[in-house]
Specification:
By secondary structure, this protein is an alpha/beta fold. The chain has 14 helices and 17 strands. Helix 3 packs parallel to helix 5. The structure holds iron/sulfur cluster (2 copies). The site of one iron/sulfur cluster has 16 residues, from helix 11, helix 13 and helix 14.
Length: 445
């Protein structure tokens, strides 16, 4: 069993929070942006503009197809120069709208705050805003917040743990916009009738906790009553910010295997997501920009930037100071859970929250050797799995073994690979093993 506020398992990687004291830099100088029509887990959007059209910031350019999709909007003003297929960071071919920016960032004049009076109009506004979870999963927020019949949300949990090395976007969000974060939390509680909210922050970020507590105190004096929102400092340990870990740390409840947070009365949102909700309801501006951390030995100037969605990564890096050395490894996402990509010429999308560029010295992948059955991977697995058994099952494509050992419960946190003395490629193999199980299950259905 987990202990309240403390993970069972987990690791302590060096934090490398090199950018936490640096204010976010707003970058606008992009001549051309490439906006993919697929930036959520549902089907891709259909472009509703054509080559030659002039567009403005916030204008709809991709219409959502189906309930798991959200619309896509232009992040610059300018002219559509092409609509074509491009290879994404994951190696898939996706439809992309190219826009030549006029550098003016002229807003679409039809944009105005949405009329929100109840739960349905609130969820419609979130859908229309193009919002997906800004923690990185790309799950449409309006779907996540649609609480199924028969379930009750008792807690709104706000994930500000930011337990991964290097990344500081959520910390900067707390430091720069605590008022909008609290406003967003109050709106979600109001429209979904959730009685209580808790914000979870690792205890190595006391400033973020203080900023949010100060904001809550201000609100209490305005309302003349204490809001039902509390800030909780959690032990600094990776992966404290993983959904199931944070739920247990804050509520003591355990999400069952294969279950969802709402099964234990919880709705969880990332701190950047609630801030966006407050901003959108106030201004009507859809999701067109992204804040992300740039770091790693391959970059001259580690920093946090706020850029238009669709800005190309090489342009972002150039504007943010450029390369310090030839890139040996590029990771989209964090050093523990991110995905290594073999090319930089891809755009920033809604799910991106960090780009790590390492030089050749740091990029080397050690050769793996035989498993020595030391059990270290088992000791650190926060999901109480047997990573070495899953690794073996995945390599042999033994679906029965993988299922027997609950491979789908793996959250791909990377703790097992981090401690493995044999440098086994545990996460890559387990991820492939999860794919084998899903493929088999799909064939049976
Ligand atoms: S098996 Fe999965 S959940 Fe367990 S430590 Fe490895 S990556 Fe994390
Ligand atoms: S940590 Fe590595 S060597 Fe040790 S049991 Fe796990 S997979 Fe085997």
């Amino acid at each position: 069993m987990f202990r309240l506020g403390h993970l069972s398992g987990g690791v302590h990687p060096k934090s490398h929070k090199n950018t936490d004291a640096l204010p976010t830099v707003h970058l606008d100088d992009f001549k051309e942006i490439h906006i993919p029509m697929s930036m959520h887990i549902g089907p891709p959007c259909t472009p509703v503009i054509k080559v030659g059209d002039r567009v403005k910031v916030g204008q709809l350019i991709g219409e959502a197809q189906g309930p798991m999709a959200v619309p896509i909007h232009s992040s610059v003003s300018g002219q559509v120069t092409a609509i074509r297929k491009e290879v994404s960071s994951t190696g898939h071919s996706v439809e992309v709208v190219l826009i030549e920016s006029d550098g003016q960032y002229t807003w679409d004049e039809s944009i105005c705050p949405p009329v929100v009076t109840d739960r349905e109009s609130f969820l419609t506004a979130l859908h229309d805003s193009g919002l997906v979870g800004l923690g990185g999963a790309g799950f449409p927020t309006h779907r996540k917040l649609r609480i199924p019949d028969g379930k009750k949300a008792e807690f709104l949990l706000i994930n500000a743990a930011e337990c991964e090395p290097y990344i500081t976007t959520d910390f900067r969000q707390c430091a720069e916009h605590p008022d909008e974060i609290i406003a967003g939390i109050m709106l979600v509680m109001q429209y979904l009738a959730i009685p209580r909210a808790m914000i979870g922050i690792e205890d190595n970020k006391p400033l973020a906790a203080k900023m949010l507590k100060d904001e809550l105190a201000k609100l209490a004096s305005q309302l003349n009553q204490k809001p039902a929102v509390s800030v909780h400092l959690l032990k600094t340990i990776y992966p404290q910010g993983a959904e199931k870990m944070l739920i247990h740390a804050l509520t003591g409840r355990e999400v069952p295997s294969g279950g969802l947070p709402i099964d234990v009365g919880v709705v969880m949102l990332n701190v950047s997501t609630v801030r966006f909700i407050a901003k959108h309801l106030k201004t009507g501006m859809p999701l067109v920009r992204k804040r992300l951390t740039l770091d790693g030995s391959g970059l001259k100037t580690p920093c946090n930037v706020n850029v238009p969605i669709g800005a190309m990564i090489p342009d972002v890096i150039a504007h943010a100071g450029g390369h310090a050395a030839e890139a040996g490894k590029i990771i989209m996402g964090s050093s523990m859970m991110g995905v290594a990509i073999d090319r930089l010429d891809v755009p920033i999308i809604k799910q991106n929250n960090m780009i790590l560029v390492f030089d050749k010295n740091e990029a080397g992948l050690p050769d793996e050797s035989q498993c020595i059955r030391c059990g270290r991977c088992v000791n650190v697995c926060p999901m109480h799995l047997l990573p070495f058994v899953l690794d073996d099952g995945a390599r042999r494509k033994d679906v029965a073994q993988l299922k027997d050992h609950h491979v789908l419960d793996c959250i791909e946190c990377g703790c097992c690979a981090y401690v493995c003395p044999a440098k086994r490629y545990l996460v890559q193999n387990i991820r492939a093993g999860k794919g084998s199980v899903r493929d088999r299950d799909n064939k049976i259905q």
